[in-house]
Write a structure and sequence with these properties.
alpha+beta; 23% strand; globular
Length: 109
């Protein structure tokens, strides 16, 4: 695990804070490659976001897990983190194309 993610995970266990986490809803990239993404951030944060994490969905995760993981990371950072979950292959269990994931991340940015 990356040191930053580990510190976020530990902080959420040690000193959890509360945040009003909002979601953009699921959006689809306009250009190919087609992918879906969802943005989570703290609605009450004075300035969002010092850090933006791009995460890809996992086949063993449920849709509710995206919100749960995002909320934990945002609360651990005191609202300074935005989280974007990317599905680089909607409607398929195969999520292994790094090239497609990078193209979708670039399309979002």
């Amino acid at each position: 695990m990356r040191p930053y993610l580990l510190s976020l995970a530990l902080a959420s266990l040690i000193a959890p804070t509360t945040a009003t986490v909002v979601s953009s809803g699921v959006k689809t990239t306009e250009k190919k490659p087609r992918g879906k993404y969802e943005v989570f951030h703290d609605a009450d944060a004075p300035a969002c976001c010092s850090v933006v994490l791009l995460l890809t969905v996992g086949t063993a995760m449920s849709v509710q897990d995206y919100s749960t993981i995002s909320t934990k990371m945002i609360e651990a950072s005191g609202g300074a983190t935005g989280v974007i979950f990317i599905d680089n292959n909607p409607r398929s269990i195969v999520k292994t194309s790094g090239t497609k994931l990078a193209a979708i991340a670039n399309a979002i940015a």
